[in-house]
Amino acid sequence: MWSSTDTILRGALGTPQALALSERSMHETLQKAVTRVLSPLVRLLLRHGVSHAEFANWAKQAYVNEAETHFGIDGKSPTVSRMAIVTGINRKEVKRIRELPADVDTGVSKHNRAVRVVTGWLQDKEFQNSKGQPIALEYGDPDDSFNQLVKRYGGDVPARAMLDELVRVGTVKNIGGKISLQHNGYIPHQSESALLDIFATSATDLLTTLDYNLKGSSQTGRRLQMSVAYDDVTSEGRDTFRALSAEKSLELLKQLDQSLSTYDKGANPLATGEGKHRVGLGVYWIEDINEGNQNED
Known about the structure:
By secondary structure, the chain is mainly α. Helices cover 54% and strands 5% of the residues. It has eleven helices and five strands. Strand 3 (172-175) and strand 4 form a beta hairpin. The protein is globular, with a radius of gyration of 23 Å.
């Protein structure tokens, strides 16, 4: 079943029944939606031993940060009193949260550099064989192929530091100075901190798009948000579709990366134009077990 923001919102918001929803019923609908969204997040928190009280403190920080960033009046930063009104958190607590030290570096920039290097390895013909597959690169000399790859796509990060990071997270292997790529992309299976950074980025991107589409009223102003899923798929069908979707998604993302990178001033210093935007497209696998099929695999 194919779904997109455009069809969902047109169906949901364009009917008299939806427009006639009371404030109470809308609140109940929002509660159900948010509870459902929070479920996988709470599962992650419980697995890492995070209590409800600790999460509640994090949620208060998020409330204050969002109120300060997005809920000012006439482009001005909101006062502590306004933030207290908007969030429902008392003024003293709002003031305390605002005075907390800035977050420490999470390593996101480092991971972004690693992504650029791996993407360059997958896209640049100089680092591929005749079939377009990434080749094993030499490391050990300043002019070797791995150093050239990092110099071209890693900014000012030293090749040694980049290699250590890629080996640490399990993206590459270093056997006798031969550096081989283990995955079709930057997939840090051996680093939970790196995976959590990817989790945070991907979840934020998706929820930001969903929020934008829910508050938007213009059909042309909505952002792309589509998915395809069926709820009674056999195990054999699941496995076949998993392989097919991985293959087709990789093909699509490679094509989109080649196009988008030409407009990115970091990847292409010759790119012209004004503004600085973070733009992209995410593709993700959907799978769950229906309640009626709990005994199946």
